[in-house]
C-alpha cells in the first residue's frame, strides 16, 4: 500500500512539473525572488543564499551565506514538498528564519517557480 501511495505521489509531482511553465517561473523569480537570491553560473549569496542545486540540499547548507541559527539548526532538506511549504509560509516551516517573505499561496505559481529552480539543479 505504501508503495502505491508513493507511486501516485511521484506521478502527481511529475505531472505538475510537466504542466509547469518555466518562463512564468523565471518571471516570478525575477519579480519576487531575485532582489534577495541569485541563480545561474555566477550566482552568489546576496541578501539571501544562492539557490543553485537547492533540491536535495539541507536547509542552511551553503558556505557563502550567514544563515539564522534557526535555519542552521533545521533538519529540513529542500524538495518539492518542503520548498512549497516554505514558500507558502517561511516562518511555519523554519520558525526564526531571517527570510522576510509574506508567502505565496497560488499553487500554479509555486509549480512554475519550482520548475524554474529545477533548471539550475546541476549548477555548482
Describe the secondary structure blueprint for this structure.
Elements: H1 2-19, H2 22-33, H3 69-73, H4 80-88, H5 90-93, H6 107-118
Helix pairs in contact: 1-6, 2-6
- The proportion of residues forming helix, as a percent range, comes to 40-55%
Q: Give the SSE string.
A: HHHHHH
Largest sheet: none
- The average pLDDT is 89
Number of strands: 0
Strand content: under 5%
Supply the helix-strand structural class: mainly alpha
**What gyration radius follows from the Cα positions, in whole Å?**
14 Å
User: How many helices?
Assistant: 6
Query: Which overall shape is indicated by the principal axes computed on the Cα atoms?
Result: globular
Low-confidence stretches: none
Task: State the end-to-end CA separation.
Answer: 38 Å
Structure, explained:
- The chain has 124 residues and is an all-alpha fold.
- The chain contains six helices and no strands.
- It has helices spanning 2-19, 22-33, 69-73, 80-88, 90-93, 107-118.
- α1 (2-19) packs across α6 (107-118) and α2 packs across α6 (107-118).
- The longest helix has 18 residues, at 2-19.
- The protein is globular and about 35 Å long.
Amino acid at each position: 500500500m505504501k508503495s502505491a501511495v508513493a507511486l501516485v505521489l511521484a506521478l502527481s509531482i511529475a505531472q505538475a512539473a510537466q504542466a509547469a511553465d518555466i518562463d512564468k517561473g523565471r518571471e516570478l523569480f525575477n519579480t519576487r525572488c531575485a532582489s534577495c537570491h541569485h541563480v545561474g553560473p555566477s550566482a552568489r549569496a546576496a541578501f539571501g543564499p544562492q539557490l543553485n542545486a537547492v533540491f536535495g540540499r539541507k536547509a542552511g547548507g551553503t558556505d557563502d551565506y550567514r544563515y539564522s541559527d534557526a535555519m542552521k539548526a533545521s533538519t529540513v532538506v529542500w524538495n518539492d514538498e518542503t520548498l512549497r511549504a516554505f514558500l507558502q509560509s517561511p516562518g511555519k516551516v523554519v520558525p526564526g528564519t531571517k527570510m522576510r517573505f509574506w508567502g505565496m499561496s497560488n499553487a500554479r505559481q509555486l509549480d512554475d517557480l519550482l520548475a524554474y529552480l529545477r533548471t539550475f539543479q546541476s549548477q555548482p
